[in-house]
Amino acid sequence: MEKSAGEIVGCDLDAVCAAHDRIRHFIHRTPIFTCRAINDRCQAAVFFKCENFQRVGAFKFRGACNAVLSLDDDEAARGVVTHSSGNHAAALALAARMRGIPAYIVMPRNAPAIKRQAVESYGGIITECDPTQEAREAACQLVMQQTGATLIHPYNDPRIIAGQGTAAWELLHDVSELDVLMAPVGGGGLLSGTAIAGHGFKPDIRIIGGEPALADDAAQSLREGRIVPARPPRTIADGLRTSLGSLTFAILRQHVETIALAEEDEIRDAQRLMMERMKIVVEPSAAVPLAALLHRPLGLHGQRIGIILSGGNVDLSPLFSAPGAAS
Amino acid sequence: MEKSAGEIVGCDLDAVCAAHDRIRHFIHRTPIFTCRAINDRCQAAVFFKCENFQRVGAFKFRGACNAVLSLDDDEAARGVVTHSSGNHAAALALAARMRGIPAYIVMPRNAPAIKRQAVESYGGIITECDPTQEAREAACQLVMQQTGATLIHPYNDPRIIAGQGTAAWELLHDVSELDVLMAPVGGGGLLSGTAIAGHGFKPDIRIIGGEPALADDAAQSLREGRIVPARPPRTIADGLRTSLGSLTFAILRQHVETIALAEEDEIRDAQRLMMERMKIVVEPSAAVPLAALLHRPLGLHGQRIGIILSGGNVDLSPLFSAPGAAS
Predict the structure, then answer these.
(1) In chain A, which residue ranges form alpha helices assigned H by DSSP?
(2) What CATH architecture is A61-151?
(3) Rounded to two decimals, what is the model's pTM?
(4) How many CB pairs under 8 A join A and B?
(5) Does the beta carbon of A31 lie under 8 angstroms from any beta carbon of chain B?
(6) CATH 3.40.50.2300 is right for the domain spanning B4-58+157-314
(7) Which of A24, A131, A298, B247 has the maximal Cβ count within 10 Å?
């Protein structure tokens, strides 16, 4: 069973390599940062793959770009559709604009203005719906019927997973002899892609997920052997509030050694540590693996650890509203 | 007169090259970032030399490191001293620790705790004094008499200027065909070093300073042909509140085409733009040249512009104190 990853169609190292070939002229090859102070605190050598510097500010652009570029011309001409209000929506809109095709984004009526603006700035066509899962799916179906657009799920899609895996693929090419790969887990697309790239590249590399303790549905799912749905969202790591999908669940079961949990204050402290010491802007979701590494006994002292920093889309207005702030 | 820069002893391209040879194994070779959205807004190709990623979070480490490594063994053994409460103090403390010599830092009694901690964390020995210029200089003299330590001025010193010039030297090696170099100006050490490296490397490169309109003493000084002292500090660009020195004034007169001014809200907006779009943490002082470029008619459309981002030491606590912030 351990070696059957290839059985999941389109979810193997070849798919990741093909995705990288497809998207590499459109994405940023993001840099890898290290930090002496963080290495000292972790007693390990930590290599951060800075997907906060990726286009649209998150790894999501890799998967979206791969999905859009994987369509044949007829499919592409009819456009793509998704229901998401986060980074995936913005990423899909930009990828579609680059191919010159429409992106239909279904968003709940109460989505924050800043997320609408991001999608609109990349040329996405927004359809509003009621803020329920049923309404979102119904609105999506309607768009598909009316336009023939292809649904691009934010994570439960082999094209998305292969695309997200290209971040780890680059990291493994740029840093030698990694012992461990870590990534945050929400819907599981990034961690699935990371796992496939990692084990395809180096079969004995250890794959560890990071998840907020307040949104530990992936850890529970692996423990119970079934997809446990996400609880109502309370964590500050707003990118990690979703449940696993059938495909990501199957991949994570095969590949992931453990999912380490981080408390809210640990996530916030890790985010602050990276912003203060590394001088990079990261979102709370991106800080979850480091938070877990700093606070859980994962037995990784002396190891070479690659961490995918998922994104840097943070509301910075508190810094710029207080008098005398940001100086 | 235009070509007499070499007459100022120790302030020419050779000095910058020698400084780079001396310090290169101790500093970070910082990366150069670009940003599509900023290029679009400036209608130019802007290359940011990210000294916010430098050790101690600012370019200041380059000059301090060069000064400390320039001392002969006897001088070095007696240590170094400065009166500064900012990045220079932390940079000098770290450079001295690396050479295994004492760094005496004279600080006003009312200096912020966070600045004291930075100096102490790098092993600096703090001497407190009253918060006046006279008290600082007197305390410095006393330390020098008691210890024989060498005074390292934060900017009016050829070793410091040559060290700061290594940032531009790297930028000019890494990016071809730059038309313009920009740097913020406070005491003038960074802009002087940038100018010497720039004109030494490419005689027709244009050197432009950026200064807060609320601290426009360098612009006034160049206009009036004498050092106009800085006014009481009011700008948020707290690194730029100092007056020029005799040496930096002489160099800037020879090399600088203009000093462009930026208003406070323009500085803040430019800082926010870099943090939101480039996902990097920069201090207000670092944002001053971009603010001027965005808002003053400098005639740089279509040009290739290198900007030295001076540092990233920002108090981020407003982001982490508001409930629900930083997500």
Answers:
(1) 13-23, 36-42, 60-70, 73-78, 87-99, 113-121, 133-147, 158-174, 189-201, 217-224, 246-255, 264-273, 284-295, 317-321
(2) 3-Layer(aba) Sandwich (3.40)
(3) 0.94
(4) 90
(5) yes
(6) no
(7) B247
